């Protein structure tokens, strides 16, 4: 019976075969010492949790170690053993503070009567757009206001879709569309190219306008194979030509 | 066994039972009561659409008239559930279109609804009356047009906070001229402008219209036209509440409001211009519910409005109200039961308003009926929480979000364990709790010991070890929903309390330390739970077993594993092999 098997109060948890499966806690980054302890103590320990253990006795886990590892990084990924962990940058934590995107998107369009128009734009409110990648099984949503440049967006997208590479940006953070041959290299390669649908419903190559303008006009993102994005090149070319 | 009463009498008696709990209890008395009850159950509530299947519901309850169902986990509201996860309603609509031709009501929350589903609803149910889509997505205004055009007896169409692909406002014009049955229309989430004359005519010919929530595109100058045609309105959501300041607009508005003697609820107020607020003063004394959470106006204007609403029971507002505004609220609104304060600038590094823990303390002191709180702020102290707890022991819902993760008591720099401990110790009726700030395992000990009526708990960036989770799972007797993110909880507490999970609706854990191996074990040992791993890094078995999973969603079910899982969800099945759908 499942309930007797799992009735830890009667100390019969070993029936679950905990030792058989040798299920170690294996917390990422926890030292060898801790692993060995957990392996030995196994299930009976949980019986004792209520009775006589203080938090110190439960494990030799380094508290600060744990906190660092559980604080979310940019895309809410947990490290496997040996991954290095960066402390979270502010406003990079997915889903925190827990404000609904619905609410954030609505606030974004309103003017603040006290006119706190800062460098952030409309008061730091969000701009969520859907991101799809050709061949990937799922969509994501990103908040464009979380990034300050194409490079930051490119890094974030790269992490989200790990087989994806984006063309390099120049020092001003814009894709180098001034150079026709560079553009053709990009589009002929097997790399993926980010494209976006703007407010007029046109599909454009990402990077052809200044970042702030892009954030305002981007409705959705699609990451497609370079060769498929060729159809968009003419528009980019026109812009190149009109600038030079 | 001799019957005391014939079946018809029992059925008549049962018809007075509306609560599911009562009906479920009745069903367990004996086989004949089970049979009688199941034939006369008209309303079904399904808290998790994957806990049961359409076939099972239809087989047991053949005469259902109203379905209410929820789909995605709550944390989907904060983007923690990837797109394509599931919660599709279409299989349910398909099954019900054949089995329940007399279906009247469908209420859904956090589900994916398509135009196809809406069209099927419109075609299948001749007596369809109520459609409520709360935080749903996947449909367009074309689907709405089908509903408007075909549901001859439609009473309620409520799209609250759904994500609708807004192709045009033309859908509203599909209500036929002989549609006079509308009682409630909530289109506040839509962007496009509808034909105003169509809207006007619709409102004018529906004498029972009680709730009208307009979208932003309806300008303030046109509001009086609608109010004059529906003076019986009880709940109004305005459109954009701004225009250039002209005395005729103001006086028309004031006059229109003065005619609406039954108004109890107000919402909307996008782009609000403070100068137009006094136009509403004539209705304020009757107002019990006020949603100003999109109104970006400053504290003095908010105070002027709110202090007119002496009978206010529910207030949703932005933190522009500040501590001073909340003090004024506490002084004026003695009937206040629910307060929600939303952040105007949640991602800003520095506070942009003077709203602190003090505002909430004031309200807890001044409002003796306060029982439901949602509060975003940037600083908190144990002392304040203890005060709030002592002031309001009848608190039922307490959700506090301190914007900076793991922020300590700003006065003592200690964890907020003692403060939240006081909340659960004093507020013995507490059913829902969301915590934030710096919290150790100690707070979970308090919760496990005291929060005996707690049904839903939300935890983020808290705790030190498995002991914390163990306290909650072993101590909270009434727990139904537990959602956890970014906490150092791992395998031990979860596995030791596996049986507890069958007594709950669901458990969500993301960015914690639960290993793939433990998930597999849990899935193997608990066949009546679906143990689903969500991991966008690829198959969990391509990494070591000790590697923590990104996200874990565990729920009890009688329907077995689901058949619609996307590529990033794996179910931990009993048969030891890693299964995809």
TrEMBL record, chain A:
What keywords are annotated for this sequence in UniProt? Auxin signaling pathway, Nucleus, Repressor, Transcription, Transcription regulation
Give GO BP annotations, semicolon-separated: auxin-activated signaling pathway; regulation of DNA-templated transcription
One GO cellular-component annotation of the UniProt record comes to: nucleus
Gene3D superfamilies in UniProt: Phosphatidylinositol 3-kinase Catalytic Subunit, Chain A, domain 1 (3.10.20.90)
Q: Which InterPro entries match?
A: AUX/IAA_dom (IPR033389), AUX_IAA (IPR003311), PB1-like (IPR053793)
Tell where it localizes: Nucleus
Give residue ranges for domain PB1. Answer: 126-226
Please provide an example of a Pfam family that matches this protein in its UniProt record.
AUX_IAA
Query: Is Nucleus tagged as a keyword?
Result: yes
- Chief localisation class: nucleus
Describe its partners and assembly state.
Homodimers and heterodimers.
Cited PANTHER family? AUXIN-RESPONSIVE PROTEIN IAA13, AUXIN-RESPONSIVE PROTEIN IAA17
Function of the protein: Aux/IAA proteins are short-lived transcriptional factors that function as repressors of early auxin response genes at low auxin concentrations.
In the record, the note on similarity to other proteins reads:
Belongs to the Aux/IAA family.
Protein name from the UniProt record: Auxin-responsive protein
Q: Which organism is it from?
A: Sesamum indicum
From TrEMBL, chain B:
Q: In which pathway does it act?
A: Protein modification; protein ubiquitination
Domain F-box, first and last residues per copy = 5-46
Compartment annotation: Nucleus
Q: Name one GO cellular component term.
A: nucleus
Question: What's in the keyword line of the UniProt record?
Answer: Auxin signaling pathway, Developmental protein, Nucleus, Ubl conjugation pathway
Q: Name one GO molecular function term.
A: auxin binding
Q: Which InterPro entries match?
A: COI1_F-box, F-box-like_dom_sf, F-box_dom, Leu-rich_rpt_Cys-con_subtyp, LRR_dom_sf, Transp_inhibit
Q: Name one GO biological process term.
A: SCF-dependent proteasomal ubiquitin-dependent protein catabolic process
Know the name of this protein? protein transport inhibitor response 1-like
What organism does this protein naturally occur in? Sesamum indicum (Oriental sesame)
Q: Which gene encodes it?
A: LOC105165245
């Amino acid at each position: 019976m499942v309930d007797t098997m799992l009735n830890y109060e009667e100390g019969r948890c070993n029936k679950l075969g905990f030792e058989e499966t040798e299920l170690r806690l294996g917390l990422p980054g926890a030292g060898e010492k801790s692993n060995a302890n957990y392996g030995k103590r196994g299930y009976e320990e949980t019986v004792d949790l209520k009775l006589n253990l203080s938090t110190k006795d439960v494990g030799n886990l380094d508290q600060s170690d744990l906190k660092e590892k559980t604080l979310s990084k940019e895309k809410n990924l947990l490290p496997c053993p040996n991954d290095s962990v960066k402390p979270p940058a502010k406003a990079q934590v997915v889903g925190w503070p827990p404000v609904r995107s619905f609410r954030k998107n609505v606030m974004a369009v309103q003017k603040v009567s006290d006119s706190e128009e800062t460098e952030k734009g409309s008061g730091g409110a969000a701009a969520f757009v859907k991101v799809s990648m050709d061949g990937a099984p799922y969509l994501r949503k990103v908040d464009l206001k979380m990034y300050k440049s194409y490079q930051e967006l490119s890094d974030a997208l790269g992490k989200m879709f790990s087989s994806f590479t984006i063309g390099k940006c120049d020092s001003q953070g814009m894709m180098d569309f001034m150079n026709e041959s560079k553009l053709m290299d990009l589009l002929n390669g097997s790399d993926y190219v980010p494209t976006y649908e703007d407010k007029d419903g046109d599909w454009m190559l990402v990077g052809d306008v200044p970042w702030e303008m892009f954030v305002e006009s981007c409705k959705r993102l699609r990451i497609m194979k370079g060769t498929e994005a060729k159809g968009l090149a003419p528009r980019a070319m026109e812009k190149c030509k009109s600038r030079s | 066994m001799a019957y005391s009463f014939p079946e018809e009498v029992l059925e008549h008696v049962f018809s007075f039972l509306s609560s599911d709990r009562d009906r479920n209890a009745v069903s367990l008395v004996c086989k004949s009561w089970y049979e009688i009850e199941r034939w006369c159950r008209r309303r079904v509530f399904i808290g998790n659409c994957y806990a049961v299947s359409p076939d099972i519901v239809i087989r047991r309850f053949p005469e259902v008239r109203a379905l209410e169902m929820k789909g995605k986990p709550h944390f989907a509201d904060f983007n923690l559930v990837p797109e394509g996860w599931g919660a599709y309603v279409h299989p349910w609509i398909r099954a019900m279109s054949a089995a329940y031709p007399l279906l009247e009501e469908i209420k859904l929350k956090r589900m994916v609804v398509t135009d196809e589903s809406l069209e099927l609803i419109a075609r299948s149910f001749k007596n369809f009356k109520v459609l409520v889509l709360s935080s749903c997505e996947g449909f367009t205004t074309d689907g709405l047009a089908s509903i408007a055009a075909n549901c001859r007896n439609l009473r309620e169409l409520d799209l609250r906070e759904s994500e609708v692909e807004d192709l045009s406002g033309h859908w509203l014009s599909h209500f036929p001229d002989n549609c006079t049955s509308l009682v409630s229309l909530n289109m506040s989430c839509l962007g496009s402008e509808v034909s105003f004359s169509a809207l006007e005519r619709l409102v004018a010919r529906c004498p029972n219209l009680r709730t009208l929530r307009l979208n932003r595109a309806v300008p303030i100058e046109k509001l009086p036209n609608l109010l004059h045609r529906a003076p019986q309105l009880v709940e109004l959501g305005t459109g954009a509440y701004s225009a250039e300041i002209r005395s005729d607009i103001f006086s028309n508005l004031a006059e229109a409001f003065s005619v609406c003697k039954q108004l109890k609820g107000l919402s909307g107020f996008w782009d609000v211009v403070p100068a137009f607020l006094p136009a509403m003063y004539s209705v304020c004394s009757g107002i019990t519910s006020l949603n100003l959470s999109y109104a970006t106006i400053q504290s003095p204007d908010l105070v002027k409005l709110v202090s007119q609403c002496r009978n206010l029971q529910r207030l949703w507002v932005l933190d522009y109200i500040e501590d001073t505004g909340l003090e004024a609220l506490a002084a004026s609104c003695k009937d206040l039961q629910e307060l929600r304060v939303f952040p105007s600038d949640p991602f800003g590094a520095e506070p942009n308003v003077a709203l602190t823990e003090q505002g909430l303390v004031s309200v807890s002191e001044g409002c003796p009926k306060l029982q439901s709180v949602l509060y975003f702020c940037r600083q908190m102290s144990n002392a304040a929480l203890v005060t709030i707890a002592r002031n309001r022991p009848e608190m039922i819902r307490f959700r506090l979000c301190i914007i900076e993760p793991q922020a300590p008591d700003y006065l003592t720099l200690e964890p907020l364990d003692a403060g939240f401990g006081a909340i659960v110790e004093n507020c013995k009726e507490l059913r829902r709790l969301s915590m934030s700030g710096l919290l150790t395992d100690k707070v979970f000990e308090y919760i496990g010991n005291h929060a005996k009526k707690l049904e839903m708990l939300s935890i983020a960036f808290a705790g030190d070890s498995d002991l914390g989770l163990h306290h909650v799972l072993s101590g909270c007797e009434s727990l139904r929903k537990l959602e956890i993110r970014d906490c150092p909880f791992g395998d031990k507490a979860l596995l030791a309390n596996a049986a507890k999970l069958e007594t709950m609706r669901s458990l969500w854990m993301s960015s914690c330390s639960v290993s793939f191996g433990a998930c597999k074990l849990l899935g193997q040992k608990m066949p009546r739970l679906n143990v689903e791993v969500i991991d966008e890094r690829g198959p969990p078995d391509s990494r070591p077993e000790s590697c923590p999973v990104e996200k874990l969603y565990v729920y009890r079910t009688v329907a077995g594993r689901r058949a619609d899982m996307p590529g990033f969800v794996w179910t931990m099945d009993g048969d030891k092999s890693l299964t995809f759908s």
